[in-house]
Amino acid sequence: MLVLPTRLTHDEAPACMRMLQQGLKGQADSSSTVVDATALAQFDSSALAVLLECRRESSALGRGFAVKGLSPRLRELAALYGIAGLLPAAP
After folding, report:
1. What is the annotated signal peptide range for this record (predicted)?
2. Interval 28-38 mean pLDDT
3. Does some domain include residue 91?
4. How far is CA 37 from the centre of its chain?
5. Which residues are paired to 33 by β-bridges?
6. Which domain holds residue 24?
7. Domain with 56 in it: what CATH number?
């Protein structure tokens, strides 16, 4: 499982994406990618961009994608942008 930091804004997005990319490479035997957003407390729309990029890279590797612990605020932001369906909830 990949884990998001507590803060993910425009300033943190590049470093966070690099971290997630490394995590994806380290999960070579996995059929699905789960990103844990439980700790995410401070964010802007960059968090959505990072999640979408992670989803894209996971898909390119032939893996499923889901997000665990997406806060109601971030889910509302995703709905506002029309991308909520691209960020399915993990069981």
Report:
1. none
2. 90
3. no
4. 7
5. 65
6. 2-86
7. 3.30.750.24
